[in-house]
Amino acid sequence: MTNQTLDFVLAASTTTGFHPGVTFFALWAVIIGAVIGVPIYVIRQRRERRDRR
């Protein structure tokens, strides 16, 4: 290996890129939960209100 190739391999092995942490996944869990949960909540509220009348 030439010196330039060795430098490239070393740089590639130490570059970590984007590795999100726990906060990133928690935020997306909240967002996905809201997207799924809010319509269900609204539908249930409307049905309960309609049934009370």
Description:
This protein is mostly helical and 53 residues long. 81% of the residues lie in helices and 0% in strands. The chain has helices spanning 3-14, 22-52.
From N to C, what is the helix and strand string?
HH
Based on secondary structure, the structural category is: mainly alpha
Sheet of most strands: none
**What percent of residues adopt helix (DSSP H or I)?**
over 70%
Give the amount of beta strand, in percent: under 5%
Tell me, what's the shape?
rod-shaped
What ranges have pLDDT less than 50 throughout 5 or more consecutive residues? none
Distance N to C terminus: 81 Å
The count of strands amounts to 0
Rg over CA atoms = 25 Å
Helix count?
Answer: 2
Q: What is the overall pLDDT average?
A: 82
Transmembrane segments: 22-43
Organism: Streptacidiphilus cavernicola
Protein name: LapA family protein
Keywords: Membrane, Transmembrane, Transmembrane helix
